[in-house]
C-alpha cells in the first residue's frame, strides 16, 4: 500500500525543492568525478591563518562540550576591533543563517521586501521561506542601484531592503559616500541589511563609518572569505542593540561549534595573514583582467575575491561553464539577464590561476 506523504503547510509546499545553490559536491556526483579546480564558490584558496589552524587542532579534544551560546570571547574581540559595544554584535553560522533571522524578525507574510534583480539568492530564499513578497529593481551599469532601491522602498512601503557592497555576483562596488547617501535616503521604518562579506578585498574608502546609534541598519560581515573559514560557518552582524536583541531572541543559540569560535578569534588576531591574502587576491584579479583582454573579452573591475568576465551573452556563458565543468573546472555565472552574460571566477592560487587560464583558452578555442 502506498502511504500518502505527511501534509506540510501550504507555504512550504509552494517553495522549490532545491536550495539556492547546487554545491560542487552535487555536481561532482552528477559528473562522476571530482573537480580539479574549485573556483566557483568564492572560497579562499589560501587557507586559514596558521594560528587559527593551531588553536582549532588543540580545541578538537574539547569538541564533546557545547560551545558558549553567547559567543562571548569572539564578540568581545569584534567589539574592540570595531569600537562598538558587545551587545551591538551577534554571531551566527555564516551570514546566511543571520539573514534568515533578520527576515523572520522583520516582516510578516505577504509584506514587500526590496532587493536587486540578480543579487544574492540566499536572501531571496529566506524571504520566500517566510512568505514575504520579493520586489526587485535592476542593476545599473552592472552595479546595484541604491537610488532605485530607495525609490522602490518608498513606493512599496517595504520594511526590509537588502544591499551588498561589494556586490555578488558582479564584484562591483559603491564608495562610502554613495552608501551613506543610500542609508540617509531610507525611511527610519525600513531596515537596511548591508552585506559586506567581501569588504576586506575592496579599496580604501569603501565602507561608511559604523553607526550603531542608527536603529535601522545592520552591517553583515563574515569569516568565510578573506579569513578562509567558509567551511567553519562564522558570520556576524553589527547594529543597534535593539536589532541585535531581536536576532538573539530567535537564533539557534547552539549553532556555533567550539572549533569555529576559537579559530575565528585567532584569525581575527592575525591581521598580517589577512593582508597577505588580500594582496594575493589583488595579484590574481590583475591576472584575470589581462587574461580576459588576451581573449578579446572584458573583465569587470572587482572589489571581491572573484572576477566577472563578460563573454557576450547568457547562452555563451552557459556553454563555457559546461565545457569547463567537463574539463574538471568549477565556476559559476549570474542567474539573470543581463548579468548572465558573464562568468564568475574565484581568485585561486598562482598555480590554480595558471591552470584556469589554460582550460579557459582551450574552451574558447573549441566553441
Your description of this structure?
By secondary structure, the protein is α/β, with parallel strands linked by helices. The chain has helices at residues 10-13, 24-31, 50-59, 72-82, 94-106, 121-129, 146-156, 176-185, 241-250, 258-268, 271-294, 314-326, 350-366; strands at residues 37-38, 89-92, 112-116, 133-137, 160-164, 191-195, 217-222, 235-239, 298-299, 306-310, 329-330, 342-346. It folds into two domains: 22-47 and 272-366, Aspartate Aminotransferase, domain 1 (Alpha-Beta Complex); 50-269, Type I PLP-dependent aspartate aminotransferase-like (Major domain) (Aspartate Aminotransferase, domain 2). It is built from 13 helices and twelve strands. Helix 6 (121-129) links the parallel strand 3 (112-116) and strand 4 (133-137). The radius of gyration is 21 Å and the shape is globular.
CATH topology of the largest domain: Aspartate Aminotransferase, domain 2
How many helix segments? 13
The coarse silhouette is globular
> Structural class, judged by helices and strands?
alpha/beta
Provide the CATH top-level class of the largest domain: Alpha Beta
How much of the residues is beta strand, in percent?
5-15%
**Uncertain residue segments:** none
Whole-Å distance between the termini?
52 Å
* Total of domains: 2
Q: What is the C-alpha radius of gyration, as a whole number of Å?
A: 21 Å
Strands, count: 12
